[in-house]
Amino acid sequence: GLSQYSSDPRTEWDLSAHTTRDRVLEAVRNLRYKGGNTFTGLALTHVLEQNLKPDAGARLEAEKLVILLTDGKSQDDANLAAQTLKNMGIEIFAIGVKNADEAELKQVASEPLELTVYNVLDFPLLSSLVGRLTRVLCTRIKEKSSKENAGSTGKDIPVNMGPQLSPTDLKISAVTSKSMHLTWSPPPSPPKKYRVMYYPSKGGTPKEVLLDGAVSSLRLSNLTSHTEYLVSVFPIYDTVVGDGLRGVTSTLPLSAPRSLRVSELSHNSIRLSWKAAQGASQYLVLCSAAPSGAED
C-alpha cells in the first residue's frame, strides 16, 4: 500500500489493490508527485486509520510494517503519532533524503535504529538502499513469525478494535468567527486520552489538543474567520487508538458595520455614521471621488 502526504495525506493505493509485482511497479511509474508541507504526524495517523484496516487489505495475522520516506523536518508532532503505531506492534522504518532531520528519524523509527533508520543526501542515492532494506525487512518478518510459531507470549493487538473503543455523535455548536464548541459521546471503554486535531480544509497548519479521557467536550478558539475546518477526535488507549470521529464546519465571517448614513454635507466635508460591528477594535474609512455620472 502507498500513501503520499503534505498537509493532507492521500492514499494512492491500498494493500489489497495490486496482487502482482508488475502491477505494483506499474502503479509506481504512474505515481504523480504531491508537493506541499511536511505534516508527518498527520500522515502516520492517516496510515493507521485508513491503510492498516481490514477493509483496506490489512490481515490481522500479518506483520505490520510502515516505511516512512521524507525529505524534511515534520511541521507537526510526528513522535506522538509514531509512538501510537509502535505501541500497537507496528514497526516503523524511517528513510530521510536531503533536508530530513536525522534526530527526528531516530525518534520515529522502531528499535534497533541501526536497522530501521537510513539517510541519504539526494533522491538518486535511494537506489543504493534497496538491496539492504529489502533484506532487513524480510528478515524482520521472518524473525517475528518464528517467535510467534515458537509460542511467543506476546499478545496480538488487532488494528481494528471496533465500536467498543470509538466515540460517537460528534456535535459542533456555538460557532463564531473565531471559535466553535465540540462535544461527543464517549465509547463504552473509557480511553486514557483524546487527541483532537483540526485544520482548514483548503490547507493550513494542523493543530492538536490532548485531553484527559474523562473529558468529552472542547472549545476551539483563535480560529480564522469565514474558514472551513476539518475536525477529528481520536481515543487513545495504552496500546491502541480507536477509530476517530470526524466533522466539518465553517467559522462565521467577521461582523460588518451596518446602516451607513451621510449627514452634515458641506462644500468640502461630510459626516458619516454607522451601526457598530461586534468585536471591532478600529475602523478603516476610505473615501474617493466618484467617477463622473455615478450615483451619489
UniProtKB/TrEMBL annotation:
Cited PROSITE patterns: FN3, VWFA
Localization in the cell: Secreted, Extracellular space, Extracellular matrix
Main location: secreted
Domain of life: Eukaryota
Pfam families, per database record: fn3 (PF00041), VWA (PF00092)
Domain Fibronectin type-III: 166-255
Keywords, alphabetical: Extracellular matrix, Secreted
Segments forming domain VWFA: 1-133
InterPro entries: ECM_Assembly_Org, FN3_dom, FN3_sf, Ig-like_fold, VWF_A, vWFA_dom_sf
SUPFAM superfamilies, per the entry: Fibronectin type III (SSF49265), vWA-like (SSF53300)
Protein name listed in UniProt: COKA1 protein
Organism in which the protein naturally occurs: Alectura lathami
Gene behind the chain: Col20a1
